[in-house]
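JOB MANIFEST
job_type = single_chain_structure
chain_count = 1
residues = 433
[input]
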Amino acid sequence: METEEKKMGVVAMTALVAGNMIGSGIFLLPSTMARLGSLSLLSWFFTGFGALFLAFVFARMSTMIPKTGGPYAYAHAGLGDALGFQTAYCYWINAWIGNAAIAVAGMGYLSVFFPFLTNPLNACIAAIGFVWLFTWINLKGVQTFAVVQVVTTILKLIPILLIGLLGWFYFHADYITASANVTPAPQLGTFDIITQGATLTLWAFIGFESGTVPAGSVKNPTRTIPIATILGMSIAGIAYIASSVAIMGMIPNAALQNSVSPFADAAQVIFGEWGKWIIAFGASVSCLGVLNGWTLIQGQIPMAAADDNLFLKIFGRRNKKGAPSYAMVITAILITACLLLTISPDLVKQFNLLILIATLAALISYLYTPVSELILFMRGTYPYTKRAVFVALVGIVYACWAIYGSGTDVLSYGALLLLSSIPLYLLCPKNRK
């Protein structure tokens, strides 16, 4: 078991939250949003506003239920075994399929420095190697994890913040005003642009809740987790908004729409040819830092459910460092199998389909957590205030809007994911009795 001295503090937990939020997607997002127009920048504020309300819900729940498992623990407390299991199952799948995608993206950025990684087989082998490297790091305990997470979070923030700060010296306001709405005729309305933009920016905020998951490995969790959740999300949000606005003002909309590396293009304006290398380095570290953070999560979630007899008991076994060793190794094997799909071009589409299904999994916890909080308030389990109820209601509305905005494909495949949890739930040790 971990002693209090070996547990994570505010710095490590803030790095976990910010590091798990800032992944590979942010480095392409300005190009995607440019296809809607500069009005889409308002989506950052709507998404940030909704995510902040949800962050307050998760922060408050972490003080009410300071248990390992985060979203699972909260859903289990308010909604019972069935929906608690469903939350753990979906969030676990989101974590390890997401890690497979992150590993693939990381090899793409590293190929700038190591051209042999452009070969699919070499990239796959290297990605699998990094998956097992970070599994090993996490098996060494939270202290080793924390050092790696803090370092990678700082390194990934440097290039993003450089663009967000120095980019204003190369800013052209007319690039923003001239491209407010560039959607093809008939043009989308302002609200539609914001809604579509919010769907894109939402993925950049996924992970703000990750600080609530390893509560058992945190010093003074009722204080540390709320601070780290709000602080980590604020750091990531400021970096996102500052860099996105700067890039849209640095690069003409027509060029930005067709850019495959908007951050690299912006860095080239500021630093010249060195810009490409700076951003490639930042993006590579970003992917590796996210992989480290979500490797911790993919072991903690099933471990928490296994402790409640809602997952196979093997997932709850710890090593001498207190790490859920079996859960991490089994999940790493699943990620390895998933990565092998990327070697064959015929199987890449199936791999992308898995990612599409997994995206809804994170949204499930965003809906279940505020609902669970309201149920606990109504039962009288915990005292409440009108403000707390209001925040939870806004969180529910925002979560529903986010799920709706994710599109019919995600919703239909996500429904299949939820249905697949039912037969597995019946096999839980608690139900077998």
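[summary]
The CA atoms of residues 23 and 286 lie 6 Å apart.
The chain is about 75% helix and 0% strand.
exit_status = 0
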